[in-house]
Amino acid sequence: MHRRQFLQATTVASLTALTYARGASAQMGGMPGMSGGMMGRLFTSGSTWPTGLPLRRLDVLANTSPIPDEFEGTLIAAPYLASLVSGRTTELWGYNGAFPGPLIELREGQQVIIDFGNRLGLDSTIHWHGLAVPADQDGSPMDPVAPGADRAYTFEVPMGSAGTYWYHPHAHQTTTLQVGHGLAAPLIVRSADDPLGALPELTLMITSLSLDSNGQVTTGATAMGGMGGMMMGGAGELLVNGQKLPLHSVTPGGTERWRIINATADRYLRIGLDGHRFAVVGTDGGLLGQPLPGLTEWLLAPAQRVEIVVSIAAQQSTRYTLRDLGYAGGMNGGAGGELLTIETGRVPAQAPVTLPATLRPVADLGPAIARQRVVLSGAGMGMMGSFLINGKSFDMNRVDLETAVGRVELWDLVNTTFMDHPIHIHGTQFQVVGRTVRGLATPIAYPAWLDTVNVPAGETVTIKTRQMLPGKRMFHCHILPHEDAGMMAVLDVQPE
Ligand code: C2O
Ligand code: CU
Ligand code: CU
């Protein structure tokens, strides 16, 4: 069947219309003075989440292309009904009816075609978070896909991009609403020569879902920004691969590679595993130069990813908890919580694996030839609090910064507010070169590829960045209610 026909055959118009009416009224009827966190806490008490179920492996999106080195897949965004909490049916919005959506597995250099059908009641897009795809394939708010419409996203997977990414909608002012209803999924790029390719691997997609006492998603109340989601660590339950505190069975002594994705709208996750140390081997854009061993925790800001290697203790039939240790930074810290139970089996222990000393070179981008300043500010903390970049609220018809293809720049990300903001730039991976706290500069100890960096309250983070493709790119705070409230700007990348 031709792909267009397939897309047309998959319509759920009536459910869509109903959904959007409900989403919109929740948005209007929300209490703007109240934080998303508080709403979540008040309303989630009625729902009972099953815990301890075997950890779900995510569906993998099928490659329907007969052509070698090409990947073609179909993603339909539509509302559907799911059983998440006892005695209730929850309306989610999903890609291909799954929460999280299907895992897309790509290889460096592959040609990719994703046929997207929007069966939601509002404009949507698919944004390939962290991947350097052409500006017009990036799913930015400048290219909305109307309700009922289809479009194909086509791009080539850049060489050197092997790493852990994710995809999500990026429609104007409704990203919180859409991601909050379940539209988010992982994307992994593999290389031909992965130095850790022999390790057993797990993808842990962490999302938060806020349900009211009827089991319905409440994120609409905070979708328009304001105080929503920025205090008390946001609203809702922390889920791993769509499950509340699932169970992952391991071989005692086994060494595993875990790809952890913070796909929450607004949560800082300080990841730790009881009784264990781990090595960080990769960040947003893939592997580090060398493993960072012996760590007990790792702060994962909203939208960031981390790859860790854990050697599980050798004791049989023992349980350990992977948790969010809580974060006290800025005003948007969270109390933490349990994420995943690890249980060792009743089998002989494996010997731990020794990691290679080097992983993949993280090259310096070279000398910077320009310096730009990005000041984060906010006016008023009341119900109409504003979230600004260089003094302005987002306007997609305005250009805020300019650069040119190939130009290496230093950007000073200056946070003048009392809360942390995770700043994300589309179209590239960058490196943090230093931090300044009250005038004191600290260089960064090791280079790593990031597309999102946490800029703590009152601090300045300096990054080195370069865009290799022309066009207009978004850069913004990835606390989604802040993004929707205007903490986003446009970078115009001129052709060489
Ligand atoms: Cu993950 Cu502009 O987005
Ligand atoms: Cu992005
Ligand atoms: Cu922010």
Description:
- With 496 residues, the protein is mainly β.
- It has 3 domains: 3-190, Immunoglobulin-like, CATH 2.60.40.420; 201-344, Immunoglobulin-like (Sandwich); 370-494, Immunoglobulin-like (Sandwich), CATH 2.60.40.
- The chain has 5 helices and 30 strands.
- The chain has helices at 3-9, 13-29, 36-44, 175-180, 480-484; strands spanning 70-82, 90-95, 104-107, 111-118, 127-129, 150-156, 163-168, 185-190, 201-209, 237-240, 247-250, 255-262, 269-273, 278-283, 286-295, 298-300, 305-311, 319-324, 337-344, 370-379, 386-389, 401-404, 409-415, 421-425, 431-437, 440-443, 452-455, 459-465, 471-477, 488-494.
- A 6-stranded mixed beta sheet has the order 10-9-12-17-14-15, with no helix packed on it. A 6-stranded mixed beta sheet has the order 21-20-23-28-25-26, with no helix packed on it. It has a 5-stranded mixed beta sheet with strand order 11-19-18-13-16, with no helix packed on it.
- Strand 1 (70-82) and strand 2 form a beta hairpin.
- It is globular.
- 48% of the residues are buried.
- The structure holds CU-O-CU linkage and copper (II) ion (2 copies).
- Residues 127, 129, 168, 170, 303, 424, 426, 474, 476, 478 line the site of CU-O-CU linkage.
Fraction of residues in β-strands: 35-45%
Rounded mean pLDDT score = 88
Using only C-alpha atoms, the radius of gyration works out to 21 Å
CATH superfamily of the largest domain: Cupredoxins -  blue copper proteins
Sheet bearing the most strands, described?
6 strands, mixed
Q: Give, in spatial order, the strands making up the sheet with the most strands.
A: 10-9-12-17-14-15
Question: Which overall shape is indicated by the principal axes computed on the Cα atoms?
Answer: globular
Separation of the first and last Cα atoms: 42 Å
User: By helix and strand content, what is the structural category?
Assistant: mainly beta
CATH class of the largest domain: Mainly Beta
CATH topology call of the largest domain: Immunoglobulin-like
Please give the domain count: 3
Instruction: Tell me the CATH architecture of the largest domain.
Output: Sandwich
The amount of helix comes to under 10%
Q: How many E strands?
A: 30
